[in-house]
Structure formats: structure tokens, C-alpha cells
Amino acid sequence: MNEKLNEAMNEISDAHIAQAAAPKKRNKRMRIFLSATAAVLAAAILIGIFSGPMTIHADAVALAEYPEDSSYVNVIEYKENLAGFFTSTLAQVLGDAGSENAAFSPMNLYFALAMLAEIADGDTRSQLLSLLGAAQATELRTQSSALWNSAYSTGNNPCTLANSLWLNTGIQYDQSVMDILSTDYYASVYQRDLSESQALKDIRAWISNETDGLLKESVDNMLIPENAELVLASTVYLQARWSEKFSSANNTEGVFHAASGDVSCTYMNQKRMEGNYYWGENYSAVCKNLEGGYHMWLILPDEGVSVDEVLESGAYTELFLCEEEDASYGSKYMYINLSLPKFDITCTQDLKEDLQALGVSDVFDLGLADLSAGLPDNGALAVTEIQQSTRICVDEDGVKAATYIRIIGVGAAEPPSDEVDFVLDRPFVFVITSSTDLPLFAGVINNP
Known about the structure:
448 residues; alpha+beta; nine-stranded mixed sheet; four-stranded antiparallel sheet; globular
């Protein structure tokens, strides 16, 4: 990935870099549009992460400083801090979907909000830090860096992350904060006239390049408002096959009991799959392994229990956010007859109200937002919207998904035998976790 980034960065002239070294002045009342983008899972049939080097027509303020060796990093000491963020955002964003499908990337939202917290100050920063599970900015930097390195990997099943910040021409910035973004958040910072059509082309190209074009339709429809002063983009891209693929010869047509009524769907079936069957407060679950240490958790609410009740209780998150000895769920190693519907879902949602419900409100108020830590002496700045679009496909070979954000106690009983039928024929929750058991993205299937 470093080679690809170096090729891209070589397209930026030395003159541009020198020009970008000096902070720019701008003293007037203005609004801010922030955008964060993420592709969170892609099938291994894709050729690669990048389609090739790209040219960025912008001044480089700071370039991402990728570590030479981002091998496994132990994030256990941060899990308690991170658990609150992941549990609360999953419940808030995925809940109340009604009869619709829902999808969400909590990992991407974390990095977008963490970068925003670095720029913010005062109560605005405090609200963001509280949601992100960090007492102060220095702790957030250490926690974010550890999380980034624990998730980042290359090889046959890569999980790559990238961040960028795009400043409008003339906006003043604190170079030391921009340098922190490049070193602790691995973000590249650029400056150019965001009202020019080339700026939109560059940002679209950056997103497509980092996500291998998986988000083409959504990216092609993405716009930058005329009054945009800032665009923030963050990507997560993962390729992974099932450790044990489904055979299409075993597929069956069946009924899915959707919230809106019974529908027909194609089930992928795997007989006598060996593994743990889990049961907890109001749910049962199995884990389907992906290569590279990734997992797809399939959480089925108990009969008579809704998906929203499972999300609200948050008990299911113990499966991946809690050490087994501290968890309240039960488990039994056995044969599992798994029936999982194939699905291809797309979801677009505005996260502004969700974040306000979670206590992040000042950043959206022009009179209260404080982004002076990274962007001093620029007048009034505020976030106008945070929108995420996600597409997730599950088939016999693995999982393919992409998402982008625009920021302008035991219930079920132990199974009676050593074999269980786990048929996902009614609304269920799924979570894809990293090799360190942190959720890259999640969703609710109400209608496959």
C-alpha cells in the first residue's frame, strides 16, 4: 500500500508542497461540510486494492506517515473504552429499521469522528471524546493508532484503512494539528478550491482508488455543497473469502418470514459445520469464519423477540467485545446445520440525528461548534450533515460490501443434543469483525 501511496503522492509538485507549508488566513463567517467515506468489505475475487496511481490536483499540507510494519497490535486494553462506542452506535444506527434492511460501518465512523475531535476544541471536543471512549485527546490518539494498526493488514486477505482531509483554499489551519492527523491517524491533508469541479473529481477519485471502485454509483452521485469549507474522507477496505465456502449445489429456495410478510429467497446451506453454538439474553448465534482471522457473526433473535430488542439490550456484543470468562452467554461445541440467505442490500442514512441522540450535538450548531483547535481564526464553522451509504453482498464465496459517510443473563436454553439447525429464516443481525474481534461493519436483514 505504501508503494501505491508513494506513486500517487509523486504526482504532487514540490512547489505545491512548499506552498502548502504556510497556513492560510481567512476571517469571515462560514459553514463547513465534512465528508467521510468507507468501503468496509470486499470479496477476494477482486484483483487488488488500488486500480493504479492517481493525480491529485491540490497542495499537500501533510501526507500520511504509514508505519513500515503494522503487524498485530494488542488492543485488549482499549476494548473496555471502545465497547461503549460500538455498542451504542450499533443500537442507535441499526435500530428502528422497521421492515427495511440496515447496514452500518462503526469502524469507519470511529475514525471520522476521531479526526473531527482532533480538530475540535471545548465542549465540541468533549462530546466527541465522550462518545469515542477517551478522556482526553492524547488518549484518543494512542487509542486510534492502536485500533488502526490492529485492523490494518496486507497479504492474501488485506484489510486496509486510509484517511484524508480536504481544506478549502484560504482557510487557516494549525500545521501542528495537521501533522498529528498524518502521524496518529495516517491521514493526508490537501488544500484547494473546493468550489471547482476538479476538487470533486479528485475527491471522487481518491475514494474510488482506495475502495477499488466498489462504490462507483454512490461516488458518482456524490456532490460538494457550494459553501463547503472542508471534506473529510475515511476508508476501510477488506477482502476475505469464507474459510469454508458454501457450495451452490446445496442451495435451496425457501421462505423468509420478513417483517412485512413471507418472501422467497435462496438459502446457502452447510451441513454438520463444526463450531460453537451460542445462546444468550434473547438471542442465539453462530460464527462463520472468513480467511485472515475475520468472522461473520449471525445473531438470531429468539422467537417472539424483535431485532430492535436484541440491539437495544446489547447483550449480543459480548460475543466479540467481551472476554469469554466475563461473558454471560452460554456456548457449546457441536455440529451446526447452517442455512443463510444470500443477500445484496444497499442502505443510505443520515447519521446526524443518531449522533445528536448519542450526545454529539454542538458540532452541528453554528453558534456552538468549536473547530478552532485545527482551524483557528476562521469564523463560525459547523457540520451540516453526516451521511453514510452502504452496500453489502453475501454469496457462496464470501462477502462483498462498501460504505461511505458524508459528514457535510442468559435467555435461550442450551440445545438438547450435539447437533442444531440454525436457520436464519426471520429477521436477524450480522456483524463482521476484524482479526482482533472489533466490528468493521454490521447490519440487519429484514428482507433478503
